[in-house]
Amino acid sequence: MSIYARCMQLTVGEENYPFPEEGYHGDDIRELARGFLAQAGEFPGQTSQDAWETAMAEYGLSVNIPRMKADLKKYGIVYDQWFLESELHNSGYVEKTVQMLTEKGWTYEKDGALWLNTTQLLKEKFMREGKSQEQVDKLDLKDDVLRRANGFYTYFAADIAYHRNKLEVRGFDLAINIWGADHHGHVARLQAALDGLGLDGSHRLVIVLMQLVNLMQDGKPVRMSKRSGKAIALHDLLDEISVDAARYFFNSRAATTPWTSTWTWPCTRTAKTRCTMCSTPTPASAPWCPGWRRRGGGPRRCGGGRRCAERPGGAGPYQGSVPVSGGAPSGGSGL
């Protein structure tokens, strides 16, 4: 919808085609619209808006996914497999997963929609984990829609199907997800749904909740929003500071620790603020990283032969705000 609206504005003028308030206002959408029109031919012509939007979605993915892969590779992350949500729907995997929940007695129909009995699943989960019946009864538990009255499956249904794919089809013994803290209410529900499928989601799906980064500029908080077009992408960050410096700052804090930072990164190169960094496990990843547990705390050398920063007392890497001169703002190598 957003790319289509920008394409219409580029074709007939912004004054003749208002941009929807609920659309994405970022400059990246304008860039995608210009790129799409350059290879689309006659627009809009006799083609329906739905057909155009389908083609635009495919074009957007073909442009953005390679960019994401490049950004992550620069940061030191390479995913073995990229999984499109559309694959789950087109293959019928979401429908089959919901059918399995129905066959196991965990769904019911109401107001034309199909619901998951999340309340009962959570009650059983919490009681297995040691909560009393009285404690469980006090919780404000609610059921979740799996299939809307219009026949479309919800994001939650797709989430359940995707994690069933991880645990059942690909055979993961343990799946570890990194989520933003704003999704905390979704953790137990997804684990319970997988429990309902007999996949032991309560133990085989581990969710690490990361606190969000609060950015400050000129002493005032800057509200980030992809929809409003106010966002700082990973490549923007890595254009300002080195990869080592970025990884150090993110990994030196526990996942549960809120972080307020300024966009002007503390990355001045002075002798007094010199600090060595490397890309080895830190306390933020310690609960799930066997490498960290084997090596324990204290100073050590990573694969590159560099000595990791030592906290006073030899208790492991620094946690907290450490002045860093780990690289040139243009993205040069760390110390």
Radius of gyration computed on alpha carbons: 24 Å
Order of helices and strands: HHHHHEEHHEHEHHEEEHHEH
- Please give the order of strands in the largest beta sheet: 1-2-3
Please report the number of helical segments.
13
Average pLDDT score: 78
What is the count of β-strands?
8
Strand content: 5-15%
Tell me the layout of helices and strands:
Blueprint: H1 2-12, H2 27-40, H3 49-75, H4 85-90, H5 93-103, E1 107-110, E2 113-116, H6 118-128, H7 133-137, E3 144-147, H8 155-169, E4 175-180, H9 187-196, H10 201-204, E5 205-210, E6 213-217, E7 220-222, H11 234-240, H12 243-251, E8 259-262, H13 290-295
Parallel strand pairs: 4-5, 6-8
Antiparallel strand pairs: 1-2, 2-3, 6-7
Architecture overview:
By secondary structure, this protein is α/β, with parallel strands linked by helices. It contains 13 helices and eight strands. It has helices at 2-12, 27-40, 49-75, 85-90, 93-103, 118-128, 133-137, 155-169, 187-196, 201-204, 234-240, 243-251, 290-295; strands at residues 107-110, 113-116, 144-147, 175-180, 205-210, 213-217, 220-222, 259-262. The strands form three sheets. Strands 1-2-3 form a three-stranded antiparallel β-sheet. Strands 7-6-8 form a three-stranded mixed β-sheet, with no helix packed on it. Strand 1 (107-110) and strand 2 (113-116) form a beta hairpin. The two termini are 46 Å apart. The relative contact order is 0.09. Residues 265-335 have low confidence and may be disordered.
